[in-house]
Amino acid sequence: MTPDGQSEMRLMRRGDEFVIQVQGQELMNSRTHGSEEALAELSCANLPDKTTPRVLIGGLGMGFTLAAANRVLPEKAIIEIAELVDAVVEWNRGPLGHLAKYPLEDKRVRLHIDDVRVILKPARDRFDAVILDIDNGPTQLTQVSNQGLYGKKGLSIIATALKPGGTLSVWSAQPDERFTDRLRECGFSVTVERVHARGASGHSHIIWLARKPLSS
To answer: Whole-model pTM?
Structure first.
């Protein structure tokens, strides 16, 4: 079940392909993870601290975003990941682990089985990047309570948690101009990237890269 108890989450397998479903709808697929990898790569491309950065990832999924962050971040990085669903962590340590080469085992990773908001709320100038991959987008939510994360109050909490010059990145299945406007209203400078889900063709996904100003 999802943490709010409203939806059933299931891991399915078809040959070599794995699918996570929520209420019978496909949430993620092991064949299409190019945009998750791009999410981490773009987020970590221009960090304020390039030697000992601290990055927070909201959502473990099938481990592809975390694995990409592990690849591009330096040896002294701290990579915190917040995942609410115990089963998702168990799947990544078990039947899904080989897909992303067991990224939770990286010594730089600190796992929180908790809501990403619990990590964000007390933080002040703590993270070089915050990466959100917990829903299908700001309006296509896996649980209703996540709505506050993408509103002005939630974005202000994230801005406070970021270091000056830090980046919030958000993955989405679909574009959302209202969310772009909201990010700018909260003081971020915003770039919207369209990236392919698999290879160099096929359907594409959206990534927002929202940079906190160096000074207020």
So the answer is: 0.92
pLDDT tens string 90-99? 999 999 999 9
Domains of the chain, by residue range, sit at: 32-211
pLDDT in tens, 49-89: 999 999 999 999 999 999 999 999 999 999 999 999 999 99
**Cα separation of 83 and 131, whole Å?**
12
Which class is domain 32-211? Answer: alpha beta
How far, rounded to the nearest angstrom, does the alpha carbon of residue 13 sit from its chain's CA centroid?
A: 23
